[in-house]
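Teaching note: in complex prediction, the entire set of molecules is handled at once rather than each chain in isolation. The prompt given to students was simply: 'Predict the structure of this complex.' The entities are:
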Amino acid sequence: MFKAKVFIKRRPTILDPQGKAVEIGAKHLGLSYIKNTRINKFIEFNVETNDKKSAENEVNDYCKKLLANPIMEDYEFTLEEVKS
Amino acid sequence: MSAREAVKNSSSPKFGVVVFPGSNCDYDAFYVLRKLLNYEVAFLWHKDTDLQHCDVIILPGGFSYGDYLRTGAIARFSPIMNEVIKFADNGGYVMGICNGFQILLEAGLLPGVMVRNESLNFVCKEVYLNIENEQTDFTKGIESKKKLKIPVAHGDGNYFADENTLKELHDNKQVVFKYSSKDGKISKEFNPNGSIENIAGIVNKNGNVLGMMPHPERSSDPVLNKTDGRLIFKALVNNILN
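The expected output is the structure of the full assembly:
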C-alpha cells in the first residue's frame, strides 16, 4: 500500500483572493517581509495496491479528473510505501 | 434528427430541473417554469440516467456537494451529468444558473473557471445585466437594449478565462451578459465579484448551453415586483418553437 500526498497549486497567473486577504492579516500583524501569499491544497489518501506503476496511474487520474482543475491548477504528488 | 429539430416539432418544450445534493434553487426554478409560465417540468435526480425526454435541462443554483474541493467539481461526476453532456453535445439546450454555471465549467461544457469573489464576501444583491449578444436563443426577442434586473447570490462568481479563451469567446460572440449599471455602463463599479470584463453569462460555441451567475428564477414572480428573469425563459421557449 502507498500513502499519497498531493500538492495542488493555483497557477501564478490566476488571482488568489484568499491569499491576498490573508496577507492583509500579515500586514496587520506588523510582518513586513511577507509577499505573494497563495493558498494551495494538500490532500492525503491511501492507495491500496503494491504495484507502484498502477498506484501512480490511478493517482494521476484522480488528480487530473477531480482533485485539480487543469485549467487553473498544477499538481504534484509523492507516494510513500507503507505496511497495510 | 438533431435534438434541436426534435424540439421544434413538439408543441411546447419540456424542462428538466436536475436535483443535486445541495441544490437549493431547484424548487424556485420548478415553480417559475411550472406555476408561473405553465411549461411542462420534471425534476431529474442526480443519480438518474434518464433525461425523461426533456428538451431543456436546467442545472439549478445551490451548493452541490457542499462546494467541497471546488464549486461544481463533484457534481460534475454525478451519473446524470454524463447524459447531460451527451445531450448538450447533440445540440440539446442546457441552462446552468449560479452553481449550475460552475458545474458546466467543471464539466468542460463551457470554457473558463470560477474563483472566489474578489471581495471574499458572499454577494447577494440585485444587479443589472447588459445583453451583449441579442441573437442567442436565450436572448433573441427580448426588447433590444433592455437591461435585465436580476439578483446574484454567490461566493464564487469571479469568472476567469485566459487571454486565448477570452479572444475565442469574443470571436464567437459567446459573451451573453455583462454586469452593468442601470443604463448599461460597464465598469468595475458595477462588478459584484471581480469577474473578468464584468462577464456574468456565456454560451458555448454552438449557442445551446448557457451559464449565468445571476438567478433569473428569483426575478420571475410578479409578487416580488421584478420579472426580468422570466424574459430569458420565455425567449428560449419562443426561439425553440419558432
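Point out the following to students. Chain B has a mean pLDDT of 95. The interface with chain A takes residues 69-70, 73-74, 77, 106, 112-113, 115-120, 158, 160, 162, 194 of chain B (CB under 8 Å).
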